[in-house]
Amino acid sequence: MYNQIMDILKINKLNAGFETETGFAQVLFDVNINLKQGKTLAIVGESGCGKTLTAMSVINLLPETLKIISGEIIYNGNNLLDLNQKQISKIRGREIALIPQDPMTSLNPLYTVENQLVEGILTHLDCTKEEAYKLALDALDMVRISNAKERMKNYPHELSGGMKQRIIIAMALCAKAKIIIADEPTTALDVTVQAQILELLKQLQKDLNTSIILITHDLGVVRENADYINIMYAGRIVERAKCENLFDNPKHPYTQALLNAVPKADSKVLENIKGVPPRLGVTISGCPFSPRCKQSFDKCTHQMPQMHIFNDDSCVSCHLY
Q: Model's pTM, two decimal places?
């Protein structure tokens, strides 16, 4: 059962926004997320829906102009939003690690792989430089990088995109992070390397019982790699379910539209979602998806739907239920 597995991270009613010339523009609305120990939670939605902002809130890597106005992010019994910069820095990278979206720009071009791995280990762990070097080699072996000692001498420009992504994953392993936030971890990689990186994450999760937040717009990636899914639209979670339940029985019209837009081998027609998502910060009186929804009716345009919870622990924010 969904509730029998321990929550390692809980985001409760997170609200955030930007100060603009015309006033405060809210971009996250009562976001609730539960990450289970040893499981993968996918946050899925179109670009600009707020999924990266939600995940970056966990490790306080937000734009300076973004302000969290209310909510909780509970990890190890503590609300991370109450911690100061020094306290959150001890958790970031050490216990909650980030695999950023673009491996090409995530490593410092002026330092070797050894410099960057060893420095990270010395920052987070109490060990000697020699011990840090050994841990770095072990991490490279775990991410299946051959000739690890030679690779340690390389600069980032000497590595392929897939190799750089493996180095970044190795950085998370060096610190033995309990949670990994993978922000579109395969976007800049070709299809073959994408599959290798995702398979690597699955194997490491199995070996180390790591919890993963997977941020993506690719439902194909989600189906093969996630245990639970949160569908996000216009800064709100609109549907939450176990992976198999969501694909077998999508409840929200937006989720249904996303699945219908996935190319299928037995179909020559590709359904697109008409219209565009509302810009983050725009005030919406009704359901934010109603202008694009084929099932919209009068109530949808002027009243925000409440979250409806089903017996299987899935839930959906829609007036149809």
A: 0.90
